[in-house]
Amino acid sequence: MNSLFAEKEITFNGKKQICGTLTIPVEIAEKNKLPAVLFISGSGPLDRNANGPKGKFQLNVYKELAEYMTALGFITLRFDKRGTGKSDGDFISTGFWDFVDDAEKAFLYLKNCPEVDPDKIIVLGHSEGTIIGTALSERQPINGLMLLSGGVGNLDEFTAHQRKLAYQELRKSKGLKGILMRLLINEEKQEAKSRRLMQKMFDSNKDVYKILFFIKQPVKWMKEHFAYDTRVALKKVTCPVLAILGDKDPLVDRDLLKELPALVKGDCETHIIKNMEHGFRVQTEEMTILKMKKLLKVLPSRPLNQEGLDALSKWLYEYYLAETNTQQSLVDTGK
Which terminus of the chain is more solvent-facing, meaning fewer CB atoms within 10 Å of its CB: N or C? Predict the structure, then answer.
């Protein structure tokens, strides 16, 4: 355990019991009520640290980001998604609005923590969490919204963007593979096929749909996501907003961020960070969507992108620490 902060295992209940970690900067917390950051994780069966089940994809990015922010002087809360880690529930049948419900319960838990300043609770959404965090802003008076590796678009837009990049990358393949891909791939037909399959699943009225009798698809989750209009929600946001994307992130359409300042009513800041991938780590290799799994074997051992951390800490300091005594943070913020 790091002597600069204390970690506390916590639970909160909604329809399911959710487990998480509350991290508190020890020295500062003894004197002040502190601002807090609520982490909302990305898609897939990720636990509170951004790690997958059965030892797969041990990313630890939320743990590292939480410890970094706690060292700046923030209480942080990150939690296992429903049906992952120690949290109850069945992940594959959990819907988008179920995840929003859990995020709201986490927000209310933070608001009632005696160490937390209830008027300074910031929601940090990563990837899918940017959509969930945006939906949460319609339900609760959040005091800051951080959109990491996402923002503005909904799931339908992002998955369409990912398919488009995959088509482009396949057509650019070298040698015989490239020749075959350019002959065989018809993007228009592939998109039509994808839409037909999606509509077939949505028409089934099932929470979970099996393709080829055994490949389970989270239909409730997809249907609710696709129907959600993030832009309508963002137009109601009055708190400060920070959006950070990496230039090596193939999962997010960075052009969508151009819409953000005109959508939100509060102060808005956006950054495209050089040599940063979807998980906030350093990536110097070219952007690729087809070789992401291969990259995930080496990315977790790399540091978080310092330029991204600098943008994050500068924003947090200016809006949530500068007017309080808590700027005596436990790490150098560059101020």
Answer: N
